[in-house]
Amino acid sequence: MEAVKSSSNKVFNPTVDPIEEHFYEVIKLIGEDADREGLKETPKRIAKMYREIFSGIHENPADVIGKTFPAEGTNDIVIVQDIPFYSMCEHHFVPFFGKVHIGYIPDGRIVGLSKFARLVEILSRRPQVQERITNQIVDTLEEVIKPIGSIAIVEAEHMCMTMRGIKKPGSKTRTIARRGVFDSKDGVQEERFFRLLEKQ
Predict the structure, then answer these.
(1) Fold topology of 4-53
(2) Left, alpha or beta for 155 (phi > 0: left; psi -120 to 50: alpha)?
(3) Which residues are catalytic?
(4) Pair 42, 17: CB distance under 8 Å
(5) Which CATH number fits the domain 64-199, given the four candidates 3.30.1130.10, 3.40.50.300, 3.10.560.10, 3.40.190.170?
(6) Which residue from 73, 85, 101, 115 has the fewest beta carbons nearer than 10 Å?
């Protein structure tokens, strides 16, 4: 494979990470000197970071949950709350971050509690929108453990609102996804879920 000359006449080594090559060009296109000392290693750091923070693209969230266990008679709400997450908005590629609260009512099978944090991590490590993450959490639970009901709440601050655009720091967005008994018209289980969250 031959070396490629960029628009800035710099010759790239074909063994260099393609993300590194392209980000070098981005730095030039915004009007900066990509070869000055402070930025010289930035494309390499960006490439390494992108491969880490977007690693969830290559993982199946259903596989993350892994093994399920007998519920042993448990049929009450299981809640895991305040799971921190960091993701990248697919519209501007800037971060949004916050906390996730998950609840479900088992129907014979449960999963290890640590798997909820892992599930959130995998789903957030890809270009995302908050509404999609929220729905993907409950959809994955429905697929793997088939509970009587599941619910997820995602609360996040979006840098696309705080560092650009309308510039409103501290603004938060809350999204909710419900399945099964949490989505019933009487709202009994959903109301109970919120009450239990407030008691923590």
Answers:
(1) GTP Cyclohydrolase I; Chain A, domain 1 (1.10.286)
(2) beta
(3) 89-92, 130, 158, 160
(4) no
(5) 3.30.1130.10
(6) 73
